[in-house]
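User: Could you write out the 3D structure of this protein bound to S-adenosylmethionine? I've included everything you need below.
Assistant: Certainly. Input first, then the structure.
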Amino acid sequence: MERLTDISTIRDVLGRHGFTFSKALGQNFLINPSVCPRMAEAAIDSNNGLRAEAALQREKKGTRAVLEIGPGIGVLTKELLERADKVVAVELDKRLLPVLEETLGDYDNLKVVNADVLELNLHRLIAEEFGGMEVAVCANLPYYITSPVIMKLLEDRLPITSITVMVQKEAAVRLCAEPGTRDSSAITAAVRYYCTPELLFHVSAGSFLPAPKVDSSVIRLRLHEPVVHPKNEKTFFEVIRAAFAQRRKTVLNSLSSSLSLDKNAVRAILKTAGVDETARAERLTLEDFARIADAVDDGRK
Ligand code: SAM
């Protein structure tokens, strides 16, 4: 098989299967040959480079396991297969299954699962397919589900070490922002709670077929234990979402309307938490949100 980034190869393969691109499924396939090797290296490296001793153990066991979301015709999958012991690729569009059979049928370390990643029980999939291996997630994500996919991967507390993904440039800025800065949002806070984000490199719109209207970036989220310890994680995320629900308002007004609490009650909560009631959500740190959540919980008892 010729290079899967060649436009003529892609058109030939897709033509043989009568495939047409679905905009609704975010189907923009990579045609820039330098991008997939860099993404695959970043994903595999994140699984091995943590601690020398642990890495050695993993190397012995051969635990380079990758979960890919949306393989398309398999251009990134191929680079992952060359470097990993096993790749499981979840693809929603069943029209792509015979295409993947043609492009990647020679690899015996690939399993393709035809499913919607948002509907899948990923705990079960990882246990069944990777049995105890540490798993890296890698994907050129369909942009219409960037946030729900990342939140699912994080909130499900899966046994994954990192998430290396291509997202829209604006989403990359939000995902990698420092809490307490202008670019931060509810998802920034969630990402920082679970991971250390890195913006790896930018990718121009012309790197895809068909070319989308926006540029993209590849980011890597390395998972770690939560950095703050709210008494109740559910309340913590409820408070973050409520604070950002009306991000132009003060935290006093935003929390009061989104949590349906009387303003005086919120004033007391913010006082206990030591947070300025005139601040906006984007200025608050994870520690601020944790203290507010604890005060909300205490008030509910
Ligand atoms: N990895 C390929 C590449 O880089 O060229 C394709 C990436 S394309 C941006 C996104 C892929 O995700 C498409 O193949 C699309 O069919 C698939 N997809 C869309 N929604 C999905 C979902 N909910 N679950 C799994 N795959 C999905």
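Residues 25-30, 69-72, 75-76, 90-93, 96, 116-118, 140, 142, 145 surround S-adenosylmethionine (CB under 6 Å).
User: Perfect, thank you.
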